[in-house]
Amino acid sequence: GTPQKYDPTFKGPIYDRGCTDIICCVLLVVAIVGYVVVGVVAWTHGDPRKVIHPTDSRGQFCGQQGTPNEYGPAPPDRGVPGIPRGIRACSPPVSPSPTQICVSKCPDRYMTYLTAYGNAASLEYYRNFCTPEFKDSGKGPIEVLKDKECPAMLIPSTPLARRCFPAIQAKNGVIMVGNQTTYDDGQGHRRNVTELLEGAKKANVVLEARQLAMKIFEDYTVSWYWIIIGLVIAMVASLIFIVLLRFLAGIMVWVMIVMVILVLGYGIFHCYMEYAKLKGEAGSDVSLTDLGFQTDLRVYLHLRQTWLAFMIILCVLELVIVLLLIFLRKRILIAIALIKEASRAVGHVMSSLLFPLCTFFLLCLCIAYWASTAVFLSTSNEAVYKVFNESACPFSGQTCRPETFNTSNVTKLCPDAQCLFAFYGGETAYHKYLIVLQFFNVFMFFWLANFVIALGQVTLAGAFASYYWAFKKPDDMPAFPLFSAFGRALRYHTGSLAFGSLVLAIVQVIRVILEYLDHRLKAAENKFAKFLLSCLKCCFWCLEKFIKFLNRNAYIMIAIYGTNFCTSARNAFFLLMRNIIRVAVLDKVTDFLFFLGKLLIVGSVGILAFFFFTQRIKLVQDTAPSLNYYWVPILTVIVGSYLIAHGFFSVYGMCVDTLFLCFLEDLERNDGSAEKPYFMSQDLRKLLKKTNKGQPDA
């Protein structure tokens, strides 16, 4: 694809290409098909109701259609799980047993089974909170409680998130439940209601969060259109800033450099004045070594040696910066010229500013598929029932079916045996490999998410490369550079993008595993294992950053030349290493401009939102909505403005990086002759004192 002779109809090297990394492309297709199969299997076996809806101790849903509790203990419209029994099983402790049942409504009074046993009306009320097996067949209270058919006590409770929690309230600083400060635990002991506080603490947090969420929702309903206006202002400001970089980039960079030099100069002057002022004062000539370490750092400010050290450090910094400016002046000018050129390129490919929305949409699809598959996989376990008995029984611990248990041989050989819910699980091959499927789900999420990001990067790089390699800009550019680059990326380089994203996904999955191991080893005493794990986490963090950097530049080379991933990564890496100083200067200059742009846009829009929503702008004081929390729309506007500015600047950053690699390639492969003319803009050629001999300037 390298041109050997200038031709006015030549469109640059990015159009001469073939399919790359076909094996990785096939592997990605096979993996996606497998991922779809896993999703279908998970959706077939999973039941998200296990996450949303409450269940009893047998794993049966409360008040849900198609369940045993649909019309039984819990009517369809009141599927509130009943008395959660057991401190460990649920928050409010009611008895030592961890049994949970479905009831039609929460209890509204204090009562123990012993007190209700002798009263027909009380016992009838109490039956609402007993298990369905409770038949009142003449059993004594001790036997009923032993068989865990009824709770030992009832406590006034209120429904929250379809669960019953103690109705705790504070009156005059006294904690009360049902207007009482103590309760009978059903075993002849009086307990203080404060013992219920720890169990219900999380419930109160949920209740407060629910109230807060309602107020925030109300604020959004009355301010959403003003929030949208603020985000539109941020979008317009980001666009204007990018356009102005064509004219103001050089001014902003040089003003920043001059400001740094002036600040350091003032620091040197201030240190000298403090040093001179302390001359002759008692104790000011004590050396730092004689003084030693002091917890009060202000003591050091009364020593002349401290200010002398500060002055020397600032002088060294000032000298280093001045020398860097002297030797790197030309490279800074090149960086500024490339930034200006990037602004022109974005102006010719305006559709590129909206392309991050496409990437965002695809990422949302990946996240949604991963999350739904994870939920369905985690809820794929079935209710497992096992045989429980008190006497010796050969069937003890074996699985059973409640529907046929009473007619089976188990009840004949073991009369006291019961078929009870044990746990959620399964013994099929599918259930045994659920953890493997979850791991595959996580791995595919990272792979596909990285592939989507890579597709966005190579598309933008291809569009901006078509601008650079157009000899006559913008006449030689294709009609739709962004769509052309997107089509080339999918048609020729899906395999290369899959290769790069696969390498990055493997490293990210390893980091997830290391984080999981670190979480599990927090309570361990093995310091060597913790140290080794910390080192591995640090190494893989650095490796991930390096691979992201390498991939980004490899995708640019793929967009330019159409070579495979390994060749593009190698060429990009060595090209950057041969121009490492230029890379460093351009990187820092663009980082500064992007930081300044984000600070300017987010700060100005945030301040405007603050004055508007706090009704401090008199012109629109009556227009501003009345809010519960004025910080809700303000924070939304600030976060949204940052994301919008980040999206615009990510496109601009990709443009700068692409033009920079194209610029380096142009310098190395062309010499300005008729056979190998420079493709760079006229401003860059003037800056480098390069000319195209015998060819018209662009």
Structural notes for this entry:
The protein is built from 20 helices and twelve strands. The protein is mainly alpha-helical. The protein has three domains: 402 residues, no CATH class; 105 residues, no CATH class; 44 residues, no CATH class. The strands form six sheets. A two-stranded antiparallel ribbon has the order 1-2. Strand 9 and strand 10 form a beta hairpin. The chain is extended and about 110 Å long. The two termini are 21 Å apart. The N terminus is likely disordered.
As laid out across the biggest beta sheet, the strand order is 1-2
* Class from secondary-structure proportions: mainly alpha
Q: Assess the beta-strand content as a share of residues.
A: 5-15%
**Mean pLDDT over the full residue set:** 79
Percent helix range: 55-70%
Helix segment tally: 20
Catalogue the unreliable spans: 1-11, 71-97
| Main beta-sheet strand count, sense and barrel state | 2 strands, antiparallel
Q: Write down the overall geometry.
A: extended
Oligomeric status? single chain
How much is the radius of gyration in Å?
36 Å
Strand elements, count: 12
Write down the domain tally: 3
GO molecular function, one term: antiporter activity
Catalytic activity: ethanolamine(out) + n H(+)(in) = ethanolamine(in) + n H(+)(out); choline(out) + n H(+)(in) = choline(in) + n H(+)(out)
Keywords: Antiport, Cell membrane, Glycoprotein, Membrane, Mitochondrion, Mitochondrion outer membrane, Phosphoprotein, Transmembrane, Transmembrane helix, Transport
Pfam family, one: Choline_transpo
